[in-house]
Amino acid sequence: MQKIHREQARKYAFDWRDEPLLRVACGEPFEVETYDAGTGYFKSPEDKAIPARRPGFDRSPPLANPIAGPIYLEGAERGDVLVVRVTDILVDDYSWTAIGPKRGPLGESTRWPELSGGYTTRIFRHTPGPGGTTRDGTLHFNDRISWPITPFIGTIGVAPDREVTTSLDGQGPWGGNVDIRDVAPGNRILLPVFHSGALLYLGDVHASQGDTEFTGTAAETKATVRLQLELIKQARIPFLRIEKPESIVSVWADRPLEVAVETATVNLMDWLITDYAFTPTDAYCLVTTCPDFRIHVYQMCKLGKLSFVAGAEIPKRYLLA
Fold it and tell me: Which DSSP symbol is given to 2?
């Protein structure tokens, strides 16, 4: 099986000029070892998010959120849709989150000075599950609170059409730092293709995350990711989409949040109309009456140029009527 090793997974931009690290065929399994968002800096509570101490933070924007790639898919052409099938994510034995002055929405809090007066790094221990690995393991928030590890790829995308954007705050129809919990094993991620080979990048795996990633960092971790790539030839989509086994999700990133929510919903309607033979009236009425229609606020953190990421989801059982 072809593989990108972790030391190769230290790029900080989606750049169409990069030479591919891998070339794969449709359906060919391959593996990517990813760094955490801090490129290995955070190992203990003593490793604080103080910019002057962090390698790469003398750059603007900082060298954070490393990604692996590009991965060249044979046969992919401009105007196709790339389908990324995430088959497995095996996370490291710990994850971390970091808060401090001017980090996140409470980085200048006067109500709770401990959040803005100093830096705090939390290290979360991972323990294996019944299968013997972290695939079904547990994240220990502290001695009292724990939950199942629910890993996903936080930063994923293809090389944008003409621009070069950072892996820290780049976002667009092509993907980017979107922190969508549904970019997870068992799901298919759909991305528009702008260059020959598609030129896929990915990294920034999270062991778990709540809605919005409120502080700006989740449970950040290293991981080994297994994937397969497929193609839908000459098909247009407006933004990243997700196909889950039981539902479909239309994604949009924008500010303010209501624009992201509305556009994700309108694009879901377009998906219903174009691919599932709904009339515009039926699609419009479905999203307002169906009790299983859901809006997800995946990412809503104040970080650089990041927009807010919303998803509009509908179960597939309503699409087969």
Answer: E
